[in-house]
Specification:
rod-shaped, 434 Repressor (Amino-terminal Domain), 6% strand, 2 domains, 130 residues
């Protein structure tokens, strides 16, 4: 069994970053002044020319290092530890509920049922009092 480290597939990293940015191959091709087929070839290549990689990084709005070191696991960790509040991204602070929302719903329901019982009791007293 070999323990050799498999080199990163740069083209696949470019593809995933492009997809995460909700960008189509055609849009990236237009930003680079090329066609969709060329982008497809790049994304299927294990290595990419350094100059071309710099251009792609600029078009994607990321650093060359971000493309080279892209990790699906890291992205999932970042997403999991980030929340959106009215369009503002807040990283590092994960404000979770300090109560169980279902408990609150049950509590509200029980209060409403008790209010209805009290109302029925009051109306029965009025009816019997006449």
């Amino acid at each position: 069994m070999s323990t050799a480290i498999k080199p990163k597939h740069i083209g696949r990293n470019i593809s995933r970053i492009r997809e995460l940015k909700d960008m189509k191959q055609e849009a990236l091709a237009q930003a680079l002044g090329t066609n969709q087929q060329a982008i497809s070839l790049i994304e299927n290549s294990e290595t990419v020319d350094e100059q071309k990689l710099i251009e792609i990084a600029k078009a994607l709005g990321v650093s060359v290092e971000a493309i080279k070191n892209f990790s699906e696991e890291a992205v999932l960790n970042i997403i999991g530890n980030t929340y959106h509040d009215n369009g503002i991204v807040n990283a590092g602070f994960n404000y979770n509920c300090t109560f169980n929302p279902l408990d609150k719903v049950v509590e509200l329901y029980e209060r409403l049922v008790q209010a209805e019982k009290d109302k029925v009791e009051y109306l029965e007293k009025l009816l019997n009092g006449k």
